[in-house]
Structures
1.
Amino acid sequence: MLIRLTALAILAVTLMPSLGWAADDLARRPVIVCSTTQIADFARQVVGDRMEVHSVLAAGQDPHLYEKKPGDAQLVSTADLCLENGWHLEGNDWMRKLAEQTGRPLVTCVDGCNPLEVPGVDQAMDDPHAWFSCTNAATYVRNIRNAVIELDPEHANEYRSRAALYLDQLRALNNWIVREISKIPVEERVLVTSHDAFNYFCQAYGLKPATPVGWSTGNEVGAGISPQRRHDTIESIREHGVKAIFVETSVNPTMVRQIAREAGVRIGGELYSDSMGAPGTAGETYLGMMRENVITIVEALK
Ligand SMILES: [Zn+2]
C-alpha cells in the first residue's frame, strides 16, 4: 500500500510540471466568463482544460430579455477575460455593463464580422446574430484565440493548434450545410421562425427568412412583433407554398403555433437560435446545434 502511495506521489510530482502550471495554479486556472452558450463553446474549443470557461446564460435562455441575477457580478468579478457577442445581442448591453462594473477586460466577438443590417432607432443597425454563418463563427474563434494568447502567451502554440482544428471543422460544417440545403427545392427555401435570428444563416445558405418578430424579442426600436410583420409572414408562407415553419428553443412558441394554424401549415420542429441545447443533448455544442437545425429544416422542407 505504502509503495503504491509513494508511486502515486512520484507520478503526481512528475506530471504537475508537464501540465505547464505549478500545482498551486491548477486550483486557480484563468477564468473566462462568456455571455452566451455559443461563445462559451468556442472558448472551450480553443482553451481545452487550460482555462475555466463559464457562460452567464444557461441553455435555452434568451439574451435579449436576460435580467441580471445577483450572482452574475460575483462570477464576472472572478474573470481574467470576459467575452460578449456585441451589436446589442445582450439586451441593454448587460455583459458590457457587468464587465465595466467589475473592472474586468472585455472582448467583443463580432468584431471583424461582416454585418447585415436591421432597422434601428434613427438608422439601420448591425444584426447581432452573426454566429449563424460559419464564416462569422470563424471570426469569433479567431478573436477568442487572439485574446487567450494575449492572456497566456506561454501556451500560444496550444491555443493556435486547437483553434486551427476547430476552424477546419467549421469549414467542413459549412460545406455540409451547403450540400444539405441543396436538397430543398429552390422555390421552397423559405425559413419561417419566431424572430429575426436566422438572417445570416439564410444569406449564407440561400434561404429567404420570414419572421413575425424583428431582430430582438425585447422592446428595442425595430424589434418585437408588429401586425405588419405578422401579416407579411403569413403572406410569405402562402405565396411560397411553405410546408412547415419552426419554433425556437429560446423563444415562447405560442405565436408561431398561432401562425401555423392560421396559415394551415405544420410546425417543422424546434430550432436552436440564440442559445444552444442543454448539456447531454445533441445541440449542446455549436457544431451540434447547427447540424441538428439543418437536419430539422431539410427534413421538414425538402
Ligand atoms: Zn435573437
Note: Confidence is low (pLDDT under 50) at residues 5-20.
2.
Amino acid sequence: MNRDRDPRIGFVSLGCPKALVDSEQILTRLRTEGYDIAPSYEAADLVVINTCGFIDAAVAESLDAIGEALAENGKVIVTGCLGAKGSVVRDLHPSVLAVTGPHACEEVMAAVHAHLPRPHDPFLDLIPPQGVKLTPRHYAYLKISEGCNHRCTFCIIPQLRGDLVSRPVGEVLQEAEVLVRAGVKELLIVSQDTSAYGVDVRYRTGFWQGRPLKTQLTALATALGELGVWVRLHYVYPYPHVDDLIPLMAEGKLVPYLDVPLQHASPRILKAMKRPANADNALERIRRWRDICPELTLRSTFIVGFPGETEEDFKRLLEFLEMAELDRVGCFTYSPVEGAAANALPDAVPEEVKQDRQACLMELQAGISARRLQRKLGRTVTVLVDEHDAEEGVAIARSSADAPEIDGRVYVLDGAELPVGEFAAVRIVETDEHDLYAETVEKQESPRRSRQQGAARRRRSRGG
Ligand code: SF4
C-alpha cells in the first residue's frame, strides 16, 4: 500500500434497496473515518462486496463478483445476504478476509480495521480505541442491551429507557475484543435484564470474526469465554435457558458467579411486584446450578417493606434465604419512586417496620455469608489485584466470587509487591462475613497478621 495517501476501499454493491441502504451506511462510515473510495480494483487496497442471496441468479452473480475481486485485487471482505447463508461463500472462495451477514456495518468496519488500519486522525486519535472509561484499566463494564420488557411495579426504568433493545452480537464482541486488547482482564456484562438478551430481535443471527452467531445470551457468553479474561454476568433472571450457562462456568469459560436480582420470595409479594420469576422455581434452579457447578457464587438483592408485605411474607423471605444460602445479598427498604405503579398499592408498611426487617434480614444473611466464606479457608484461589494499601503493605484484590464495588475483597497480607491489574495465586488464611484474608502461595512462611489487624484494616477500607 502507498503510505503517502489515505487507504482506499473498492466497493461493489449488489441486491435490493435494503442492501443498498446497508452499502450507504458502510460507505458513510468509511468516508467518516477517512478512507477513500477507489473507482477500480487496481486502485483499491481492499474491496468490500455487499452481496445478494435472494434467488439462484443473484447468488451466482455475487459469487462471480467475489471471484473477480479476488483475482483482480486479492483482499476481499464479503457482507450482505449471501454471507448469512452458512458457508456458501467460504466453500467457493476460502481466501476472503471476512464474511458477515446483512445489516452488519459494525462487523464490516471491524474487518476493515483489522486488514487496513484506519488513517490517522489528529482529533479522534487522542481517544484510546476502547473509548473513555471510568473504571480502572483492568476491568470494564460491557452493556449488551438497553431497556426492559418487564413492568415491575416498583420500577420506572421501562418508562425512562423503553422496551428491550439488544445490541448486535458482533458489535458487543467487537467492543469486548477492543477492551481486552487494551488490557482489560475482567468484563462485567450488564443490562437491565441480561437473560432476555436477543428476545427483541428474535435471537437474530449476527456475525463475529466471519462466523454466524445468534443474538442470544448463551451464544454471546460462549464467545466471550474465548477471549481469555474473566467474564462476569450481572442482572440475570433465573429463566430456564440460564441453566445452559452453568456448564460454561463449571468448565472455567465464565466466572462461576451469577448476580440474580430476586427481590422477594413470597409469591404474593412477587405477584404484587409483577416480578418475572417464582421463588420455588428459583430455589429448585439454584440447587441444580450448584450440583453442576459447586463453585458457583450467587448474589441477589431483595426489597423489604413493599406495600402489603405481612409478617408472614417476611418470614417466608427469611426461610428462603436460609434454604438458598446465597453468598452475597443486598437488601433495600421499599421507597416509592415517582411514577411507579406500586405507589397506588394499599397497606404501606411503616418506616420503622421496614428498617427492622432490613436489619433482621441482614443479620441472618451475615451468618450465612460468613459460613459460606469460611469454607474457603485454606484453599488456593486466583485473585485479580485492584490496588494497594501502601500503609499496611497489603494488596487489595478480588477472587472470581467478588464483583467490584458490591462484593467483598481479598486482602493479600504479604501482597505489597503484587502488580495491580494482574492475576495472582493466593491461599486463604482468614475469613469473616464479607472479606477474605490471604497470603501469596509462593511464600512458604508468610508473616501471619492477627485477626484484630485484619478487622482494623477492614473498618478503614469501608470508611468506618
Ligand atoms: S426491575 Fe428490572 S426487570 Fe423489573 S421493570 Fe425494572 S428494569 Fe425491568
Note: The longest strand covers residues 380-389.
